[in-house]
Amino acid sequence: MGQAGEKYEKNMECAKTMKEERDLVKKAKRGDADAFAGLYEQIYKDLYHFALYTLKNAQDAEDAVSETVMDAFSSIRKLRSDTAFSAWIFRILSNKCNQKIREYCLLREKTVPEQAWESTPSDPWGNETEEYIEVRKSFFELAEEERMIVGMHIFLGYKTREIAEILNMNENTVRSKESRAIQKMGNRLKDLR
Amino acid sequence: MAKEDKNENLWLEDALYGKISESAEKIAVPDPLLPEQIAEKLKQRKKEKKMHMLQKATGIAAVFVLAAALGTAGYYGFRRNDSQKSGKQPEQLAAAEGESSTEYVPVREKKEYAGDLYHRADDYEEVYQAVKRTQSYDWDTGEWFVGAMSGVWNGALDTNKSDSIVGIPEDGSAAADGTENFSYSETNVQVEGIDESDIIKNDGNYLYIASDVEVRLIDIRSEEMKQAGEIHPDHETSGGSAQIGEMYIEEMYVDKDRLYLIVSWMDTTLEESENPESSFNAAYRMDSSAFIELMTYDIRDRAEPKLIGSVKQDGYYYTSRKAGDIIYLFSSEFLGNVEEKEPEELIPYVDGARVDAGCIYVPEKGNSEMILSSVDVRKPQKTIDQMVILNDSAEIYMGSEAIYFYHYEYQSGKGREFTQIAKFSYKDGIMDAVSAASVKGTVQDTFAVSESNGIFRILTTDWSAEEQTNQLYLFDEDMKITGSISDIARGESVYAARYIGDMAYFVTYRNTDPLFAVDLSDPENPVLLGSLEISGFSDYLHPYGENLLLGIGYETDPDTGRNEGIKLCMFDISEGADLKVIDTEVLKEPDYIPGADFYKCILADPKKNLIGFLTEDYDRSDSASYQVFQWDGEDFHEVLSQEIADPVSELWVRGAYAGDSFYIVTDFGITSYDMENGFAETGHLDF
Question: Domains of chain A, with CATH numbers?
Answer without folding.
Answer: 1-123 (1.10.1740.10), 127-193 (1.10.10.10)
